[in-house]
Amino acid sequence: MGNELFQYLLVNISLLVLVAAILIELKPLRRLLKKQKKSLSDQLCLGTIFGLLSISGTYTGLSLQGAVVNTRVVSTLAAGLVAGPFPGLCAGLMGGVHRLLYDPASFTSVACAIGTFCFGVIGAAACRQLPQKKGRNLALILLVIVSELLQSLIILAVSRPFSAAMELEKVILLPKMLMNSLGLVLFMSLLDRFNWSMTIELADQQYLALLIAHKCLPFLREGLENRDAMGQAVDMVREMLPDVRVALTDLEQVVAASGMELSAVPLPAQKAMESGKLVVERDASDLCGPPRHRSRAFIAAPLTCGEEQIGALLFCVPQGPNLILEASCRTAEGLARLFSSMLEVGELQHQIQMRQQAELRALQSQIDPHFLFNALSTISALCTANPQKARETILTLAGYFRQALSINEPFVSLEQELSNVRNYLALTEARFQDAIHVTWDLPDVLPVLYLPPLVLQPIVENAVRHGGTEVDNRHVHILIRQEGEKVNICVSDQGHGFPEEILKRLQDPRDPGYTGLFNVQKRLRSVYGGQCGPTVNSSEQGSTVTISLPLIPPGGLKSKQEGSMAYAYRGH
Q1: What are the φ and ψ backbone dihedral angles of 546, each rounded to 5 degrees?
Q2: Which of 23, 148, 157, 314 is least enclosed by beta carbons within 10 angstroms?
Q3: What CATH number belongs to 366-550?
């Protein structure tokens, strides 16, 4: 009888595992198991499914000595271990009540009903403590042994006559513990393989979405307004997903499409933008274009910037018995989120550049009208005393203003910036004649450095204004040295030094000052961050203002030929 019991239990376990393998291939159940956060209705549904498996164990059980030898413990424990506490309790309750009603005349009915519910409790209690890898199978075996021992104790305590209960347990306890332990290990291994395959599938989709997003990043930075860039983005998506037709829309029109022709924003895209959720049209061959005989689905995922809807990403995908639409939906939704983040970053970069341009314009607008008045007065005096010098000074003034007021690029070469400084000094020296003493310490070959425009001139102007103890005796020293990938620029004077109040204000990034060195400080911080702001060494014998800039500015240099927001480093 012992061998027959082992064989019978083995057949039952095989049937249970086979049924489980079939069930997890069903799409509704796969969706339920994949969910990280399950609603109450989801948990109730899973509890019902595992409860039915528990009930089936009773029907396939073997009648022996007034009892039913079964595999209920496998499916009932698995309910709590796989689906969570609530489904485990539901499965235990369903299996227990059914066992009580199945054969109420049996002397073990009440004990088996109580034991089945306890299986659910044990599975629910152990769901969070079960090891993920090492020792997992041993833990499953111990759970079955504890559950079967508890069931035996309940039968011995409740069932009468006691002698019949004892004889029954002598026959069935060991086979149940061995075979049901094997059954639970096989059952959980099957579900583990499903979880592993699901993880691999999700990782593949995430990798593909990230790869597509990485390749599309340079185009998405341009914003939805740039149709050429968006066209390249959708072509790139279609190149990576050959079976998918792709389009991008803003709130009012189709911005770019690859593989389908859309004259207006389709209705699914409008719904997606209105609801902020993914919209799927399962029979949308008309929207996707030819060939119309193939069954295609239309997927619209909203694009957002912050909390605001700005457009939609559209997918047209083939569908059929061997094509899983759910995977395409997840890919579209993931790409839409990534695209939204990239478009938002591109908009942020655009705003930063607009701010930098505004700061540059602010600095350009601060060219001292007194400086212009004094320069014109100097030229007027020279017209009589030294016409040739007056002519040279006018040309210098014209060059100074042309360069200072016509700069539109975020970066200029060091040579251009020094040319502007020389023009300023020439105009100043023309006014004060021999009062300004400027010394230069430059390398034989200037470093190939690009820096924000109008950075050096305010520093030199500050040194000229405050660089001497007497009006007619001002000393300025300009030193430039390259150290590795950085260039140090030092402007020194022999004045009385900076007031302590000014030094403290220069260290405060929130200071509202917006003239002279304060403007330079803010602009350098906005471009390079806090590490490239000017440093000031000041004493009663003079001051030195130093800036240390990288050869290649952040993001490279904006190329005029490109006509885009992209940057490319330019050398001589």
Answers
A1: -125, 135
A2: 157
A3: 3.30.565.10
